[in-house]
Write a structure and sequence with these properties.
Layout (H helix, E strand, L loop, with lengths): L2 H80 L4 H84 L2 H13 L5 E5 L2 E2 L8 H9 L4 E2 L6 E3 L6 H8 L6
Parallel strand pairs: 1-4
Antiparallel strand pairs: 1-2, 3-4
This protein binds zinc ion (ZN).
Zinc ion binds next to loops.
Length: 251
């Protein structure tokens, strides 16, 4: 195979790897943002449950205070009742006491309601606190992993870019331009193998004369349909395989 063709094929491998790395480098912050957003919504849910629980407990205290106030009123009224001079006065005190007792029962009923509401809230808060603790640790470890992964990816990308630049310098500029033009126009794939008389990328059948010229392998040719540089892999001889055991393109 022509040296330029070998270089272009290797260049394609590097460019695909670079595209993968770049995809991963951009995907990682998105993933982190997603898991942080989920964590945030769980934290807000917990805050809401905590606030509901606090509101519940506050109201219960108010009810208990109210009961105390009414009980004090009753005991005062009972004292006053002893001093009643007429039946009318007596009944009036009795009436007031009944009113206070009714208020006490209302508060007691409300306390029972609040207790039955607080039980599931309390359970929710405790469960959410435990789950959030685990989730926070998970998010933190994924963030650290992403940071480490990104650093590795960036280093690998920089090394590949360096290797790429070295190879580009060795390729005849018109051949490199052919590759770049096809790669940019064809979703990152600028070179394709010719298999069984077809371009393996666009599946267009090659004209017989074109296929013959391509098999001779003495010039760089582009697919007449998709413009990708085509290469033809002849059945490999033992010598070819042996020479490929060493890094093929780094000369
Ligand atoms: Zn093609």
């Amino acid at each position: 195979m022509l040296t330029d063709l070998k270089l272009v094929v290797r260049l394609q491998e590097i460019d695909l790897r670079l595209a993968d790395l770049s995809r991963e480098i951009t995907a990682l912050p998105k993933h982190i943002a997603e898991i942080e957003k989920k964590l945030g919504s769980h934290e807000r849910k917990l805050e809401a449950d905590r606030a509901a629980l606090a509101g519940n407990q506050k109201e219960r205290k108010q009810c208990e205070a109210e009961i105390q106030i009414q009980e004090q009123k009753i005991s005062k009224l009972k004292d006053q009742m002893l001093q009643a001079k007429t039946n009318e006065q007596y009944r009036a005190f009795q009436h007031e006491i009944e009113f206070c007792e009714k208020e006490i029962r209302k508060s007691e009923d409300r306390i029972l309601e609040l207790m039955s509401e607080s039980e599931p809230l309390d359970k929710n808060v405790k469960a959410a606190e435990a789950a959030l603790k685990a989730e926070r640790a998970q998010v933190e470890s994924e963030k650290q992993e992403a940071r480490a992964r990104t650093a590795v990816d960036e280093k690998a990308a920089a090394e590949l870019q360096q290797e790429r630049a070295g190879m580009v310098a060795q390729i005849a500029p018109p051949h490199y331009q052919l590759y770049e033009k096809a790669r940019k126009a064809r979703r990152g794939i600028g070179v394709a193998e010719a298999v069984a008389g077809r371009c393996s990328a666009c599946q267009m059948a090659l004209r017989p004369q074109f296929a013959q010229e391509l098999k001779r392998g003495d010039k760089v040719m582009s697919c007449e349909s998709c413009q990708r540089i085509l290469y033809y892999n002849p059945p490999q001889s033992f010598e070819d395989l042996a020479s490929q055991a060493a890094p093929a393109v780094q000369q």
